[in-house]
Amino acid sequence: MEPSKVEEITERRLPPNAGKGRPAGSLNKSTSAVREAIARMADENADNFVGWLNQVAASNPEKACDIYLKAIEYHIPKLARTEVTGAENGPLTIKVVTGI
């Protein structure tokens, strides 16, 4: 009887260029360039922003406030909302003990 010519593959082979790409989490060139351009534009127009906001506020204070709040979100991020519940998503019971 002739031995089988089929070889059993015991480990998975990787392609020859495996692992040579960008490190995980790093930005590609276009994303980095766009982020740099936006940051530069924001930095160069920081002084103008106050003037533009004053112009809008002169005719529409509510809209100026809305613009300001939207812009400030990029400086001070919103906190995530969390909900605290009791056991099995039931109501939370708080017991206050005094005289200890």
Description:
The termini are far apart. The protein has 100 residues and is mainly alpha-helical. The chain has a domain of 31 residues. It is 42% helix and 0% strand. α2 packs antiparallel against α3. The chain contains 3 helices and no strands.
Largest sheet: none
Q: Low-confidence spans: pLDDT under 50, at least 5 residues?
A: none
Q: Provide the structure class.
A: mainly alpha
The general outline is flat
Radius of gyration: 30 Å
Task: Sketch the topology as an H/E string, one letter per element.
Answer: HHH
Count the E strands.
0
Beta content comes to: under 5%
Please estimate the helix content. Answer: 40-55%
- The separation of the N and C termini measures 88 Å
Individual helix count: 3
Average pLDDT over all residues: 83
Please specify the SSE layout and strand pairing.
Blueprint (H helix, E strand, L loop, with lengths): L28 H16 L1 H14 L1 H12 L28
Short description:
The chain has 100 residues and is mainly α. Helices cover 42% and strands 0% of the residues.
Annotation keywords:
100 residues; mainly alpha
